[in-house]
Design a protein that fits this description.
620 residues; alpha/beta; 7-stranded mixed beta sheet; 25 helices; 40% helix
Length: 620
């Protein structure tokens, strides 16, 4: 690491001769592999952008020039080169460095990212701000071939085209890979572009010409090569000056090309070709497996885990295949999360009924609505945090028409290492205010299967929200039992205090209830809330406690309060859940304990409010 150890800022990088940047890239790539092997994180995507990160900081004057990494899970090299090398050992850990760009973390992180397709919009805003302030800096958006298929990216490019006097550079990192393999017409366009018979020759000649001193010859060749490779490219129609495609792992070529583009005014578009996992053969061979991972041995690679409990995504995927075998109207839809949502087997078994629509959450929901109108029973498998991106479609296109669409909301609640950007803390609050919606939260794996069946059989929009990872280890019955809608279940009877728990909070609430002799209820439904059971608990107990792994503001506890208010019940109610703030990355169990949502925290909160003994509590 003789070169890398000398780099503490881009200023140090600029002191190096261009001839040693390839050696630096090898050191940086090895450092990323070694670091991620100890902490876990995103690997394949970061290995693919090492040379690009070096070239960008070598050529541009960051942080004066604004650099935005779309999605941001490819930004580790950027972080290391901007003074955060020693913090890599804290990556994605409590109080450690974020796995995504974060403005509070560094002045070099011009814009916080983690959700897809936002970079061009933000970069355009910054470029126009430079013009309005009469400042001379370049705004740069790095976006992948998966993210650029998102509708927001096209909205931004459509807007870019009317400005010809801004300093904006969009870099398309084309690695034929997002998280799941990319889909759609634009991906096929890139494939045709890359397979053109002139590409290899043009790229090699381009290296020589673009490094030459005669810029006019370079310009003429570039225009000629563009005509050979991609006449009337899509991006030129949007108003960009298009350059490429070029080899994204040739750091000297990247440097020379970026130096040329830096001198130009107007929207510039550089198309680079990279390989996800580049330089680490195991990741090159299986970039999906090495996309997001835990700790591993760099020499041996990822070993198949043994003896693990099935995850909630596994439970969903198994149920999906089982239900599809009984109902030919079932359709499975995912916005580019086939692997993460547990749909790999379904895609193999029912390819005609599986639709990966790409990074297009809005489209996914309205696409499902269209299928529902024609008598099909679509199931949208989507992370809670990503359903936020399709909120209008959920209301206007599905709920307003009371269409039969089931939403399998994975990653609900805290998500651990991915942090605030991916946390599913808000779905109970943002879903329960929508008319016609049914919302369920399972307490264990078997109940998750039952709720998926209940949602599927319900003739209207329904959501099942379940957490990331494994549950408590409850055995799963391979049946299609459904639950009575809007009905909770008393798990234990105690005195004075009734704990009304939702979803993942049932297990710690039950443990707490046994310690302080409180009644514990598995509420099961966030909407419709079991009003009769709430009133029964209010009539037979001095106080109620609600516990949810979601924001308290407008969440399930608020629904309980509303039910009591409607009946003029004045019992004291303690609302336990996540506070009105964004919660950073860290181990889920640590985060739950910090917010008093484990057994001990629930007991402490109850005793602080109502006294040490639930049997003789003082209500206040």
């Amino acid at each position: 690491m003789k070169l890398l150890n000398t780099i503490n800022s881009p200023a140090d990088l600029k002191k190096l001769p261009c001839s040693v940047l390839e050696e630096l890239a090898a050191e940086l790539r090895d450092y990323i592999v070694q670091s991620v092997s100890k902490t876990g994180g995103h690997l394949s995507s970061n290995l693919g952008t090492v040379e690009l990160a070096i070239a960008l900081h070598y050529v541009f004057d960051t942080p004066v020039d604004r650099l935005i990494w779309d999605v941001g899970h490819q930004s580790y090299a950027h972080k290391i080169l901007t003074g955060r090398r020693d913090r890599m050992k804290t990556l994605r850990q409590l109080d450690g460095m974020s796995g995504f760009p974060k403005r509070e973390e560094s002045e070099y992180d011009s814009f916080g990212t983690a959700h897809s397709s936002t970079s061009i919009s933000a970069a355009l805003g910054m470029a126009l701000a430079a013009k309005l302030k009469n400042e001379n800096y370049t705004s740069i958006a790095v976006i992948g071939d998966g993210a650029i298929t998102g509708g927001m990216a096209f909205e931004a490019m459509n807007n870019v085209g009317i400005y010809d006097d801004i300093k904006l550079l969009v870099i398309l990192n084309d690695n034929d890979m997002s998280i799941s393999p990319p889909v759609g017409a634009l991906n096929r366009y890139f494939a045709r572009l890359m397979s053109g018979k002139f590409y290899a020759t043009a790229k090699n000649v381009g290296k020589t010409v673009l490094r030459g001193p005669i810029l006019e010859i370079a310009r003429r060749f570039e225009e000629h090569a563009k005509g050979l490779i991609a006449p009337a490219t899509l991006f030129e129609e949007f108003g960009f000056n298009y350059v490429g495609p070029i080899d994204g792992h040739d750091v000297e070529l990247l440097v020379s090309t970026l130096k040329n583009l830096k001198q130009r005014t107007g929207p510039q578009f550089l198309h680079i070709v990279t390989k996800k996992g580049h330089g680490y053969k195991l990741a090159e061979a299986d970039p999906v497996l090495y996309h997001g991972l835990g700790k591993f041995s760099p020499e041996e690679g990822i070993k198949p885990p043994t003896g693990l409990k099935p995850t909630y995504a596994d439970i969903f995927g198994n149920w999906l295949c089982d239900m599809a075998a009984t109902d030919s109207k079932l359709i499975g839809i995912t916005p580019a999360m086939r692997e993460g949502s547990g749909m790999v087997q379904f895609a193999k078994d029912y390819p005609d009924r599986f639709f990966d629509v790409g990074i297009a959450e809005q489209h996914a929901v309205t696409f499902a609505a269209g299928l529902a109108c024609e008598g099909f029973k679509p199931i949208v498998a989507i992370y809670s945090t990503f359903l936020q991106r399709a909120y209008d479609q959920l209301i206007h296109d599905v709920a307003l028409q009371n269409l039969d669409v089931t939403f399998a909301l994975d990653r609900s609640g805290l998500v651990g290492a991915d942090g605030a950007t991916h946390a599913g803390n808000y779905d109970m609050a943002y879903l329960r205010c929508i008319p016609n919606m049914v919302i369920m939260a399972p307490s264990n794996e078997n109940e998750s299967r039952q709720m998926l069946t209940t949602a599927f059989l319900y003739k209207g929009p329904a959501a099942v929200r379940y957490p990331r990872g494994a549950g408590i280890g409850a055995p799963v019955e391979k049946t299609f039992d459904s639950l009575p809608i809007g009905k909770g279940k008393v798990l234990r009877n105690g005195k004075n205090i009734a704990i009304l728990a939702f979803g993942t909070m049932v297990a710690p609430s039950l443990a707490a209830g046994e310690s302080i002799n409180a009644t514990v209820v598995n509420m099961r439904f966030v909407k419709p809330i079991d009003k009769n059971l709430i009133l029964e608990m209010a009539q037979t107990h001095h106080a109620l406690v609600t516990v949810e792994e979601g924001t308290v503001s407008g969440g399930a506890g608020s629904a309980v309060m509303e039910a009591l208010a409607e009946e003029k019940m004045a019992n004291p109610v303690l609302l336990l859940g996540l506070p009105d703030k964004f919660i950073d990355h860290g181990d889920v169990s640590q985060l739950l304990a910090m917010h008093k949502l484990d057994k001990n925290g629930i007991i402490t909160s109850i005793q602080e409010r109502f006294g040490k003994s639930a049997d003789t509590c003082s209500i206040r």
